[in-house]
Amino acid sequence: MSDFLPQEIIHRILLHLPVKSLIRSTLVCKSWKSLIKCPDFIQSHLSTTIVSNDENDSHLLLLSASSESSDDGHTRHQHHSLRWDSPEFGAHSMLPTPVIYLENKPVSDLGVVGTCKGYTTLGFGYDKHSNDYKILRVVTDITTNVDYDSIDEIFGVVNFADDDRLITTFVQVYSLASGSWKSLSDSVIPVDLKGGGTEDFAFVNDTLHKLEARFNEDEDEDMVIRTFNLSTEEFGEMMGPEPLVQGRCSIARYGDSLAFSEHYDNGLRDRGCDIWVMRQYGVAESWIKLFKVYVDPARIHGFKRCGDVVLEKRISFGRSRLTSYNPKNKQYSDLGTVGHSYYFMDSFIESHS
What is the mean pLDDT of residues 309-325? Predict the structure, then answer.
């Protein structure tokens, strides 16, 4: 074909092919394979796909869940599916569970085989500046009956130390491009940083965001948003809405900014959650209360492009239901997702990189 069509026409045709067709096209000839594997072409193809999705209103959402095995009740299975980002939330397709190798061991072979004296937090995101996917790992280690005379070097930042206990935290970043972990210098790790917790990260603007409780001068607990920029690999903080204090709170991505929910329960006829949105990312004064959702305690799972909020309501141990709430007409819709424990939802764009 290259003998009949100019190179720029071939380039334009390939940019508009779906990913599966594009991968098959690498087998046509060496020049096509070289072009398709080029990082600049990959970025251009991704940008073209995003524009096409906007024009055709054909956006997808990735929905991830887990379930317990019916055989032993201990083994957990992962489920990944694509849904149309539309009011109907229609099913698109199922995805196979990916196998990612960390330290020469597939993630699918890793599992909880016991307990350790410590806590671990994991966060994942894309660093567009280096075109790399990264994993943040925060590990807090608790050592009891400490014999300080036998310790040559303390690894990590010391959170607490006395005669009976030593608590330290260290931070590592995994780069998919290099296939290796890198430990961050103690000087960039906040002294009060600790691993663990049940809150998920919200990834916005190259930055991971996680809620943390912190004591203020009055010895009350305020909510602080801990941040970690995957490009600069630096920690930071953001303030949430001022009226919010420690409670059943959750954080999620809202377009290119953040959303925050605070659950309340003032009796059978007054329970639900307040939804706050940061209108201007990074500006604490731009938090506004968007609307109330009158439901039993539920966690924000994400937002659809139409503005509907997706809530996860736990119905039993290991099982939950997703519900969509339309703030304009104040109507709820059951999304037909019962039986699994849902833990992730975000926009999905297929890439061949």
Answer: 77
